[in-house]
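Hello Y.,

Per our agreement to keep a running log of every chain we model this quarter, I'm adding this entry. I've kept the format consistent with earlier entries: sequence first, then predicted structure.
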Amino acid sequence: MKILDIVTSPWAIMPEKLVELQEIYITHLRGEKIDLASVEARLGRPLNNEPRPYEVTDGVAVLAVDGVISKRMNIFQKISGGVSSELVRRDFAAAMADPEVHSIVLYIDSPGGAVDGTQELAREIHAARGQGKNLVAFSDGLMASAAYWIGAQAHRAYISGDTVTVGSIGVVARHIDVSRYEEKIGVKTTEITAGRYKRAASEYEPLTETGRRTIQEMLDHIYNAFLADVARARPQLSIEPVKTGKEETIPWADGRLFLGRQAIEAGLVDGVSTLAAVISDLSTEPSRWLARDAWIRATNCRR
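Predicted structure for the entry above:
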């Protein structure tokens, strides 16, 4: 897959993070070499972000979902501190098969990421809900967009406090028109296609109305799949539009960000706790956490 394909594919991510990734592509497009040493200096850490294996404490496995989510690791993930959904699926399956593990905590701090691979991971987590292990999503930073798509599939979701950010439920794609850049450097690309919509949104020409409509239809389809998966996992969330003024929206899924208690009140998460408290409660009485009412009694989380 070309770098441009990665950038222009649909993303369930906070838009400002996608802009950062787009800037990396533009640097590549100009023919400039991405200086990894300077990137490391700017980030204040080495670009070695291979996901660590899950850690187990008293039968509780903790799987980190940290940074931009992509199906496979690549330069974007190295720069952004990201995670591969394929590797999370691998580690999740291993934890589910591990006889020493009775509970799994998805420890999430992510702005979201690529749509490709996200639904597969989310559905695998949801399917595991009936297999006798407790599944918990926890965030003490950010659980947005594709990261929420994944986290919502657990039995319960918790945040650490009032500054944790949850939401940004939606899908975004960018069309990059490089035709003027090519004109500037004396290059003209002519594409020859078969199939009416094969290159309806070509980067080598300004976006046409047909191209815009094609992208919008694709995003609408993905958005509806996103909502359906979340609503199935959290049936307290209604996907029926609510009329606000002249517009109809789904209040919890209109792309906004919810902070702390706002996310609890919106029904996106179940309460406030700490990672240590979640692990302690799970390890003390794991069998009680599979039932919703028992969970509430077993924790000190505030609703």
